[in-house]
Specification:
mainly alpha
Length: about 45
């Protein structure tokens, strides 16, 4: 195997992982839905 092969792939993996984590942190969080329930359940 070439020298630095594993190190290069590990660096690429860490860069992709960091980008994924940055993107994930900026996603809007799902808000819980407040379902309106009728007063009379027989409806």
């Amino acid at each position: 195997m070439a020298d630095g092969f594993l190190e290069k792939h590990h660096e690429d993996y860490e860069a992709r992982k960091a980008a994924w984590i940055r993107k994930k942190k900026h996603l809007p969080k799902a808000k819980p839905r407040n379902i309106e329930r009728p007063e009379d359940w027989a409806l």
